[in-house]
Specification:
By secondary structure, the protein is an alpha/beta fold. It has one domain: Rossmann fold (3-Layer(aba) Sandwich), CATH 3.40.50. Helices cover 36% and strands 16% of the residues. It has a seven-stranded parallel β-sheet with strand order 1-10-9-6-2-3-5, with helices on both faces. A three-stranded antiparallel β-sheet has the order 4-8-7. Helix 1 crosses helix 2. It starts with a strand and ends in a 5-residue tail after the last helix. 44% of the residues are buried. It binds fructose -6-phosphate.
Length: 268
């Protein structure tokens, strides 16, 4: 694992977008695993800008999102399908049939989860999985005690996650679903590489536990420590509780692999 600290949330998101773009340029039919949430809005804005200004091509790319609420149709503004359409899909040249989210409206949710895993396999697996981290320590909606080998399934959301996401529903907060379909921790760990992006002071404590604490099903994000190709990109505020932050800065300043990113402008 590498932890990369950027001065602020905008630059952390831009570096994340740059890494995704570079993967897509190297492999135009890459399979991307995507996340939703506030943290990712800047990443998708940066990718859309690269599409407009640099011709970043998504035409052969396939995408699989981590999760979807149970019971929200795609046209519901609070569904993750709607979020993805708004923030990324309709802003770039992704083919709609190449974009996948779990079907939270399926009559048979277990069959929908099996089907989702099958579709990921049929595409050859996920090349690069983007992750955020929730207040409960979740990746996707893998709430505390999610098995570290879990697969795509339905999960009840913790009160902490409901409190984290209810404000996004505004006046509809009471309508926020209490259950969701999510890729499992085991599904996520099968991606060929991972990027976890965390920004803001509210993430500092849980991020430090996930990155530097013991691997535990109580914090599903800690499972990324098992992954052989994992980058954690954070801003200064989210890095505040990391014990090893001076070492992580040294890595970024000295590792040759990071030279092109250190020197490139990540300004908008
Ligand atoms: C959403 C997802 C979640 C979020 C996490 C952080 O698809 O996978 O794990 O990444 O809850 O959400 P924000 O960015 O809103 O703090």
């Amino acid at each position: 694992m590498e932890v990369i600290i950027q001065p602020d949330a905008e630059r952390a998101a831009r570096l994340t977008a740059r890494l995704i773009a570079d993967r897509l340029r190297a492999k135009p039919d890459a399979v991307l695993g995507l996340a939703t949430g506030r943290t990712m809005e800047r990443v998708y804005a940066a990718l859309a800008q690269m599409h407009r200004e640099e011709g970043l091509d998504f035409s052969r790319c396939r995408t699989f999102n981590l999760d979807e609420y149970i019971g929200l149709p795609p046209e519901d503004p609070h569904s993750y399908r709607y979020y993805m359409n708004e923030h990324l899909f309709r802003r770039v040249n992704l083919r709609p049939e190449n974009t996948h989210l779990p079907d939270g409206m399926a009559a048979d949710l277990k069959a929908a989860c099996r089907d989702y895993e099958g579709r990921i396999r049929a595409c050859g697996g996920i090349d690069l999985q983007l992750l955020g981290i929730g207040a409960s320590g979740h990746i996707g909606f893998n709430e505390p005690l999610s098995a570290l080998r879990s697969r795509t399934r339905d999960k009840s959301l913790t009160p902490e996650t409901v409190a984290q996401n209810a404000p996004l529903f505004g006046a509809d907060a009471a309508r926020m679903p209490r259950r969701a379909l999510t890729m499992g921790v085991g599904t996520i760990l099968e991606a060929r590489s991972l990027i976890l992006l965390a920004t803001g002071a509210a993430k500092a404590e849980i991020l430090a536990k996930a990155v530097e604490g013991p691997i535990t099903a109580m914090i599903s994000a800690s499972a990324i420590q098992w992954h052989p190709d994992c980058r954690v990109i954070v801003d200064e505020a989210a890095a505040a509780r990391l014990q090893g932050r001076e070492y992580y800065r040294w890595i970024y300043e000295n590792e040759p692999d990071w030279a092109p990113y250190r020197n490139a402008s990540l300004e908008s």
